[in-house]
Write a structure and sequence with these properties.
The structure holds two protein chains of two kinds. By secondary structure, chain A is α+β, with helices and mostly antiparallel strands. Chain A contains four helices and six strands. Chain B has a 22-stranded antiparallel beta barrel. The chains are: A alpha+beta, B mainly beta.
């Protein structure tokens, strides 16, 4: 249900918000885990929801009058100081970084990592050490991480899939199949 | 300057840089190559145009796979500029090293990522130090760059002929597992693991490479070509010794009579008339030692912040060698003739005096022995304690274990936006422990024979149950308990350690004509130590070999140096490199400059030239004192009439005594120094063909020669002027030699010149790509002048068995063609070693050797499990070419027949022992078929 609701919000906000990158949404669709997929859509579409149009931070409220609602230690500390007699009102212009410590949250609430992406190679060049440099349509450049022969279509653009390997390295495959080559993004 | 700018894209157009060996990575020029700034061998300065003025041969990881190599030693001979290494030799050490231009094991410096790799526990002839490359796992290598040009101005001592820089796969990310099996003369199994991962969101990396290799030892008699060459049959074998077990006997002053149970007890006779009972030692030692090796290499780096990076390298290897050593000789330290005295009372001594000849003996069979009639005589036996029972016997195996450790840590600091400081400290340590059987306690053996507890005669093995008719008690067969009383072990330990501290600052100096003049300055301090713990029996001259202890017991060397390098772009097409180094190693210091220039005359044509001086400092053995026992035949004696020690002139033989020889360097020992130049032309054609031709020359002087042998020194004392007056020979009041002092001296000179040709060609062909690569070196001359009045010898095209250098064919090289299409790769390779002369045997011509290799590999994706797999099958030397035999010429200059008359029969004396040449780089393994599987995830 929530999934359908966010899809509806997406279509409603299209007319009034910036055109959301198709690629980002396609990537979200590729996520198998439902919770992560939902969080991905949420991240992509949040700027389009009314009230978040300019992505302003919520107006700060006097923390002293309320029970602390969130866990970030910085907020807790502010609350404690405000409650002590004689203390001045806590600073409300310092907000915790939303993503700070996010990697320590349980998986369900962690922002999904981009594990796989489809792209188009527009140009391939070879370095003086024999490494290949793949220039993608989105302007990024990926360098082959070891000098070894790798077969790729010559003299034309071709689709690729870049995914993460078991050791966290990125691997490139032509058209999502065939041998992989380890790459590192350099631009 | 951010450290991440190490790899910075530029749009410079560059001539092809690395024209390399027959399998190596090549860099064909395409329009607008993507150039990266790197530090290359031969310079400390990072720049994008890195071919510079260097004669560089490169073997990349891709090409390493195409060779099918399982150990680094197999890669050493891929470089045509390398010659005379102990790589894949008939050797028990399992060690291998680079030897560029064959100028000596200590004349090539080995680096890892541009830093000194360490020193081996073993040493070459004369104590020359080298680095054992076999301790490194092959899967750690990104490429090997061999700079075949004197490089002491940059790297210091030992870089006379050049440097071999092993560059690791730093930054590799992923998981890679390899496993392989090779079927050849001996089978080899190997597995490897490579891991790499980024750390801290890419601010750091860690890489781990490990490998395991296992290969059993092999007997000589299991090698068909060895048998064919020098051991066709036991009777015609060149592996026969006159010291057999059993042996032969005589009365003092008489003639030898062989043991009548010779053959029944495992001895060999060449013919019925052969008066010796010989020992077949063809399998006394293994043809190739067994090896089991674990090795690991870990590298780590981490960017602490934008201006500082920490890095580290750790390596470990453990190698266990297994070699046979059976039936050792028996030498006595007390000055006798190395025979074993056997008393007449020995229960199995059935030799009596020959009635017709007072000094002769005849044998009485034990079945006919009568104590009332027969009286045995005292004998001298020419023999060895153990014979065939201890040869080709897995119970008599020697074990050698090598442990090598190295740790290096460094810090890169961006001092300013254009200057960087790189400091590192490295500690490497190697240890060799060895235990070999058959180190006989000679005094105990003599005692056991004298009191009848050990039966040296053939009856011990031919009729072990025989009861002596002389006493009715003693049994002919020997017991293990008695054997253990004299059959000890030879054990020794050698340790080496090296510490190196480096600090190098590099950066921009001034702008000149729109380009930047760059500089590097640095210091280095290094400390090297050796400790050798010899076998206690040997040091007491009680061991069976009574060998002279050639190596020192303890020594060290401390060296300090400072160097500078400047890179000057002169216009748009000319680059100039200037370098100079000052090195101080306590007893001597040296300054060595180098200048290199390269000129890009046209898009397709470039020239390079370099000139410089290099040096090789005296090694530790040559600067410290070592001592050992030596058997000397004294050519002088005390004249009782005059009380003076005088030279023997009446033709009689002198007394054999044991004396101590002290080896040391002289107080004015200078480093070996070299002046060399290299001129080259580089072609880079638009059709994908790249080629280079280099002409080089080395003038290597003040060679440090090993001192004369103790015997030669004693002989020369009388030979030169007939007077006993050598101040380096210390005698007692009775005229007996107590000590001999021998010194290493600077004597000798080598002038070498030749040509290097390298080429590679890449083109699209049909559905794939074809690449052809090759590298050849021709040595035009290698003139060895001992500067002692003896004729100058040209070592080019010679085995060099009579001088301190090694086999040097004039022409050697390799080439291969590789075709890749889709997931398939096929390679054909060709290796060539020219013929050369056997100077040990009147310059007989030793044949050339050509071998052909083939390999096919195919990659599979997600085969059964996620990931890529590559299956490789190949055959090296698929025509199964045998290494050429060490043929000999007779006095008439003609080739000797294979078999020649000897002792009433024939012997394969047409070929020198050991039958094949260890140092020519010939493949000794025969046809090698292998299969390898690599999995990456």
């Amino acid at each position: 249900m929530r999934f359908l609701m966010f899809c509806a919000l997406f279509f409603v906000s299209t007319a009034s918000a910036e055109q959301v990158a198709r690629d980002q949404l396609v990537q979200c669709l590729a996520i198998s885990d439902e919770a992560e997929r939902l969080a991905c859509f949420e991240r992509v579409t949040r700027p389009l929801v009314p009230g978040d149009e300019n992505n302003d931070a919520p107006e700060a409220e006097p923390v002293a009058a309320e029970e602390p609602k969130t866990d970030p230690p910085a907020v807790k500390q502010v609350v404690k100081q405000a409650n002590e007699p004689g203390k001045t009102a806590p600073r409300t212009d310092v907000q915790p970084t939303p993503g700070l410590g996010a990697e320590q949250l349980p998986d369900a609430r962690r922002a999904p990592r981009e594990e796989k992406a489809l792209a188009t190679v527009v140009r391939v060049r070879k370095g003086n050490l024999g490494h290949l440099f793949f220039h993608l349509a989105d302007g990024s450049v990926w360098r082959q991480n070891e000098a070894r022969y790798y077969s790729y279509p010559r003299n034309r653009e071709f689709p690729i899939e870049i995914s993460k390997g078991v050791m966290g390295e990125y691997q490139l495959r032509v058209d999502g199949k065939g041998p992989r080559v380890r790459v590192r993004r350099v631009e | 300057m951010r450290l991440s700018h190490v790899f910075r894209k530029t749009s410079l157009y560059s001539l092809s840089a690395l024209l390399a060996v027959g399998g190596a990575t090549t860099l064909p020029v395409q329009a607008e190559e993507e150039l990266e700034e790197v530090v290359v061998t031969g310079s400390y300065i990072r720049r994008s145009s890195f071919e510079g003025a260097h004669n560089l041969q490169v073997l990349g990881a891709e090409q390493i796979k195409l060779t099918g190599a399982t150990q680094v030693e197999e890669l050493v001979n891929e470089f045509s500029v390398n010659s005379g290494s102990e790589a894949g030799a008939e050797d028990e050490s399992g060690q291998a090293q680079f030897n560029i231009r064959n100028l000596g094991l200590g004349s090539t410096l080995t680096l890892i990522n541009g830093r000194r790799a360490g020193v081996s526990t073993l040493a070459g002839p004369g104590g020359t130090e080298f680095y054992n490359v076999n301790q490194l796992p092959v899967n750690m290598i990104e490429r090997i760059e061999v700079l075949a040009d004197g490089a002491s101005a940059l790297y210091g001592s030992q870089a006379v002929a050049g440097v071999a820089n092993i560059i690791t796969r730093k930054g590799f990310e992923g998981l890679e597992i390899t496993a392989g099996y090779s079927d050849a003369l001996v089978d080899t199994r190997e597995i490897g693991l490579a891991l790499g991962s980024a750390l801290a969101d890419g601010r750091g990396h860690i890489n781990v490479y490990t490998s395991y290799l296992d290969r059993p030892h092999i007997w000589r008699t299991d090698v068909d070509y060895i048998k064919a060459y020098i051991a066709p049959t036991p009777e015609t074998s060149r592996f026969l010794s006159t010291r057999g077990s059993p042996g032969q006997y005589r009365q003092p002053g008489g003639s030898y009579v062989r043991d009548p149970d010779c053959e029944a007890a495992g001895g060999v006779r060449r013919s019925e008339t052969d008066s010796f009972c010989r020992f077949d030692f063809s399998d006394q030692r293994s043809f190739m030692a067994g090896e089991e090796r674990y090795s690991a290499f870990v590298e780590f780096d981490y960017e602490i912040n934008d201006r500082m990076k920490l890095y580290s390298e750790l390596s470990f290897s453990n190698t266990r060698m297994t070699n046979s050593l059976g039936g050792e000789r028996y030498l006595v330290a007390d000055g006798t003739s190395n025979t074993v005295p056997i008393p007449a009372s020995h229960p199995f001594n059935f030799f009596v005096q020959d009635p017709a000849n007072p000094t002769g003996i005849i044998y009485v069979p034990p079945s006919q022995w009568d104590n009332a009639v027969h009286t045995a005589v005292d004998l001298e036996a020419l023999m060895r304690p153990l014979g065939s029972e201890a040869t080709h016997n897995g119970d008599y195996l020697g074990h050698t274990e090598y442990n090598n450790n190295r740790v290096m840590m460094g810090l890169e600091v961006a001092l300013t936006d254009t200057w960087m400081l790189d400091m590192s400290y490295g500690y490497s340590r190697s240890n060799r422990a060895r235990a070999m059987p058959n180190n006989f306690r000679t005094d105990e053996f003599q005692r056991l024979v004298a009191n009848g507890q050990w039966n040296p005669f053939g009856t011990a093995k031919a009729t072990p149950d025989l009861v002596s008719p002389k006493n009715g008690l003693s049994i002919a067969g020997n017991s293990q308990i008695i054997q253990d009383r004299f059959d000890s072990h030879f054990s020794s330990q050698i340790k080496s350690a090296q510490q190196v501290f480096d600090a190098v600052a590099t950066g921009d100096l001034i702008e000149m004509n729109g380009q930047m003049v760059q500089a590097a300055v640095g210091i280095q301090v290094r400390d090297t130590e050796y400790v050798r713990l010899d076998d206690p029996l040997d040091t007491a001259l009680e061991g069976s070999l009574n060998r002279f202890i050639e190596n020192f017991n303890f020594g060290g060397q401390n060296v300090e140096s400072i160097f500078a390098e400047v890179y000057v772009p002169v216009g748009d097409t000319v680059d100039l490199q200037l370098a100079v180094r000052y090195e101080d190693y306590s007893i001597e210091d040296t300054v060595d400059p180098k200048i290199s220039v390269d000129w890009r005359a046209a898009d397709w044509l470039g020239f390079r030239a370099s000139w410089g001086t290099s040096f090789q400092a005296p090694n530790i053995q040559q600067t410290t004192r070592s001592a050992g026992g030596q058997q000397i035949n004294d050519s002088a004696r005390l004249d009782p009439a005059t009380g003076q020690v005088v030279c023997i002139t009446d033709g009689s033989t002198g007394v054999q005594i044991g004396a101590t020889q002290f080896l040391e360097g002289s107080s004015d020992l200078k480093p070996q120094s070299s002046e060399n130049y290299n001129v080259g032309v580089v072609f880079t054609l638009a059709n994908g063909l790249n080629a280079s031709l280099d002409v080089w020359e080395f003038d290597y002087e003040d060679l440090i020669a090993p001192p004369l042998s103790a015997q030669a020194q004693v002989d020369n004392d009388c030979a030169d002027d007939g007077i006993v007056n050598d101040p380096n020979i210390l005698r007692s009041g009775e005229g007996q030699i107590n000590a001999i002092f021998s010194q290493f001296v600077n004597i000798g000179r080598v002038t070498a010149s030749g040509y290097d040709i390298n080429f590679n060609y890449e083109t699209g062909l049909g559905a794939g790509d074809l690449s052809v690569r090759g590298g050849f070196t021709y040595v035009d001359s290698f003139e060895i002048d001992n500067e002692d009045g003896s004729p100058i010898v040209d070592g080019a095209g010679s085995r060099n068995a009579r001088n301190n250098f090694r086999t040097m064919p004039q022409l050697r090289g390799n080439a291969n063609a590789t075709y890749r299409w889709g997931v398939n790769t096929v390679t054909l390779g060709f290796n060539y070693i020219d013929d050369y002369l056997n100077d040990q045997s009147r310059n007989a011509v030793i044949d050339s050797m050509e071998t052909f290799d083939i390999q096919y590999s195919r990659s599979f994706s997600d085969l059964l499990i996620p990931g890529d797999s590559t299956l490789t099958i190949g055959v090296n030397n698929f025509t199964d070419e045998d290494p050429p035999a060490l043929v000999r010429n007779g006095a008439d200059g003609n080739r000797l027949p294979h078999l020649n008359p000897s002792a009433g029969g024939f012997q394969a004396t047409g070929i020198d022992r050991p039958g094949i040449d260890d140092f020519a780089g010939h493949s000794l393994m025969g046809r090698i078929a292998y299969v390898r599987w690599a999995y990456t995830l």
